């Protein structure tokens, strides 16, 4: 949850969908970390989460840059 809060605070002007999505992904990571027997699932979720967060940050960056151009 700290990561989600930090991302939202840094970006400040994010859509509700993005904030909710980040919260859901963080919750999935926490659940995966609690499941110790399922290392492959945890690894897959971590990879998907990392890729999703990078994609969302890129989208937010493009939206911010586009807003500054207009």
From TrEMBL:
It comes from the Eukaryota. The chain crosses the membrane at residues 18-35. Keywords: Membrane, Transmembrane, Transmembrane helix. This is Uncharacterized protein.
């Amino acid at each position: 949850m700290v990561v989600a809060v930090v991302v939202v605070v840094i970006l400040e002007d994010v859509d509700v969908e993005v904030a909710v999505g980040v919260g859901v992904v963080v919750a999935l990571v926490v659940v995966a970390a609690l499941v110790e027997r399922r290392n492959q699932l945890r690894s897959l979720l971590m990879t998907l989460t990392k890729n999703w967060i990078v994609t969302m940050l890129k989208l937010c960056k493009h939206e911010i840059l586009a807003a500054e151009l207009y």
